[in-house]
Amino acid sequence: MEITRQYLAAHPYFRALSPVELAKIAQLASSRTLARGEMLALEGDACTSVYFVVQGRIRAFKISPQGREQVVSELGAGQAFYIPPALDGGPLPVTTQAATKATLISFSRQDFLLLLQRHPSIAMQVLVDLARRLRQLSSLVEDLSLRSVQERLARVLLERAGTSEGRHLTQREMAAQLGTVREVLARALSQFEHQGWIRVRRGLIEIIDPQALRRIVSEEDV
Amino acid sequence: MGKRVMPEIEVALCDLCGECVASCPQGAASIATSGQIVLDEERCVYCGDCEDVCPAGAIRLPFEIVLLTSEKPIGA
Known about the structure:
The structure holds two protein chains of two kinds.
Chain A: H1 2-10, H2 19-28, E1 30-34, E2 39-41, E3 49-55, E4 58-63, E5 69-75, E6 80-81, H3 83-88, E7 95-98, E8 102-108, H4 109-118, H5 120-146, H6 149-160, E9 169-170, H7 171-177, H8 182-194, E10 198-201, E11 204-207, H9 210-221
Helix pairs in contact in A: 1-2, 4-5, 6-9, 7-8
Chain B: E1 8-9, H1 19-23, E2 29-31, E3 37-39, H2 49-53, E4 59-60, E5 62-67
């Protein structure tokens, strides 16, 4: 309970509340720990809860018509999910599963909606968060409609090659910049390597054929 | 030849849960008596499994991107 209250006190949605209000809200919350690989909820099911990630990562994915998993995103500490279906009453848009051992806090859908009605500060922060996500998604849709992952990867590799920025990118960070996930990025890097355009070594991505990467980028600019 | 590139562990974030130790396919990760995660340079193949499974985000496997030719990158 104390961990829940501390988490809520630090979370942007609940930060403006008084300690008394936080204590009452913490009593509505449930805490749960998932083992790595454990399923949480299924795409298409009715929304019964809103979740907040305390620690660990949650994979959100959809099943394609061919039955393949398509990872949509990974959620980390501080992020909330299943808010849109909680608001509009629609089915869950994605299946969620623990990518690592993960600790979650949840509110029932009814309790979450009541919190929004009773505490305008929570509702406003949720709106701000949804607006931010909408802006990011709009920008991504615009980018996706123009470029594939391969094209975006080629551009990132060419732009970053030889730069002296202090912090090198991990594959996860690169994937996030491209609006995708690590598995998809790894496949794209593998494709580039198979083509002989790059070589991936320990901690190093060497661009062997920058002209090939420029052709990918410039084809999309036509 | 320089020192082998190794995953970076942020000690302040690491809570010694041991998930990286359990997941490492090469058995390169272990918890030392000093109470820190240590990685065996000879065994580590930089696969990224430890970065994937760490719930605290304490492990990073960074990549440097370099051009092998003398051509200038975009924007240079």
